[in-house]
Design a protein that fits this description.
CATH topology of the largest domain in chain B: Thrombin, subunit H
Structural class of chain B: alpha+beta
Largest sheet of chain A: none
Number of domains of chain A: 1
Oligomer: heterodimer
Strand order of the largest sheet of chain B: 1-2-5-4-3-12
Shape of chain B: elongated
Distance between the termini of chain A: 30 Å
Structural class of chain A: mainly alpha
Largest interface: A-B, 18 and 15 residues
Largest sheet of chain B: 6 strands, antiparallel, barrel
Helix content of chain B: 25-40%
Mean pLDDT of chain A: 85
Strand content of chain A: under 5%
Shape of chain A: globular
CATH architecture of the largest domain in chain B: Beta Barrel
Number of helices of chain A: 7
Low-confidence stretches of chain A: 1-14
Radius of gyration of chain B: 44 Å
Mean pLDDT of chain B: 76
Chain lengths: 177, 387
Amino acid sequence: MTDYGDRFLVGNQREQVSRFRARVLFLVPLAAILFWVYVPRFFEFFGYLELPLLVTIYFALMRRSQISGLLVGACIGLVQDSLWAEQPIGMYGIVKTLVGYFAASVGLRIDVEHTLIRLLLTYFFYFFHQFLFWVLARGLLGKQLAFDAQRTLMLGLLNAVVGVTLFHFLDRLRERN
Amino acid sequence: METLLNRYRNITVLLLVIFAQLVLIAVQVRSDQDVRMIRVWSVTAVTPLARVLETVRGGTVGFVQNYVLMHDARADNRRLQAEVDRLKMENLYLKTELSTADRAKALAAFQEHTQSKTIGARIIASGPGANSRVVFVDRGSVSGVQKGMPVVTPDGIVGKVIAAYPTASEVMLVTDPEFAAGVISQKNRVVGTLRGQGSANCKVDEIPNEEKVDVGEWFYTTGDDRIFPKGFPVGIARLVRKGARYKEVLVEPRGFDRGLEAVLIMLEGVHQAIPESAPADSPVYLGTPPAPAQPGQAATQQPVGAGTDADHLVQKYQQIGAAENHKFGEGLPGSKPPDFNIKLPPPGETPAPKTTAPQAPPKPPPAPKSQPTTPAEQRPAPPRNNQ
């Protein structure tokens, strides 16, 4: 195994599971959802930011628990669905549940403290999130939505950059051993 | 189980959460036809499974019906076919038995009422040859059968014994080409000779063209051949036409009407009168004979209903004459005739004698004459000397 790979994998095993206070687990997603709901009303540009997704990815990666990751994703997604009256409850829930589960699965195997890794993972999960949502909307709801891959990739990059920054901020909310 | 759940706990929880949310979506969402998606999904998910199950079920049922049950049906079919065959055979056997019983009954009745001495015999074999009209019967010289004896049935003559063996006899049927017997027509009293032709019908020879024979006329034996007694039915004329010198008359022998299984060999023939009417074709039930009258019983106690209307009238006049003490044929011209309007007592009661006239013993009326229906019944009861 190369030194690089060894660093990623062995370092991951050495890392402890990140722990967060309950209020952090409650308030951060809530703040992200509120941002997702309110801010775009005043600043349309912020509507491209998917902060609830970024929070989901972060908690799933850092807690390194698949169940925890999928539950966080399910809760955040269901709240999003509840706030979006035009879409049935469960669409974002399902998508974010899968994102949380797979993010936690990835967090178990690689070192998610690395910035580049976070960037790539965020970029990937954003694309995965959008694509899965499009698939579900077509499959379950029968909606003929268009999927603009290029735009999605661009927005994914944007969200990845914002996410890496957000993750650094959220790292400070972790409990210290 | 617990280990398995622990091992796949994460994926299990994931699937449960996903499934719960899918249900949640399905409950909320309605399709274009305003049907909830959960119903659409359920039907979509269940229908293929149901189709598969129905296919499997139909195939299984079809297999069971086509192979398992049909196997039983084939067995049942074979069993029922065998049962039908058995019943057919049984029915045929019973019909044969019934026919045999009818023939035996007719023969027994004929034996009781004929004056001739007869012996019953059963056909046991037929003679060889395609045109042979010869049969063997199970009575022979031991039973008193001799060559030349006539063989009859209640319906007519059958043939004659041409050879008598100890336990069997050979009988030439009337249809044999060598058979001959003297016959006479019933209506026109035309005499001829009956000859066999080797076929179903016989011919009557030696009837001049000027003689009259009607189709359907009965022929009886004349007794001139010294074989058949006079007065036995032979057959019915089916064809009558003029020939070169003699008439061509074909007669259908009636002795075989009931089949040719049992016959009577006439050991001692008794001539009898040729009846005025044709013998009845259908068998007639013969009841048991009435009990003989007791010596003390009056003749008036005989059933009035017996006899013809003329017999009843004669009987009534005789009773009136007895009641009024009048003797028919003795009154002088101008004397008072008997009152034929008096009311007679019902049959079985002795009429009240008149006190004004001397009592005379009632004259018994003549015995009512029965109306025979067959030639055998047109004779008085013979002495029973049959075997």
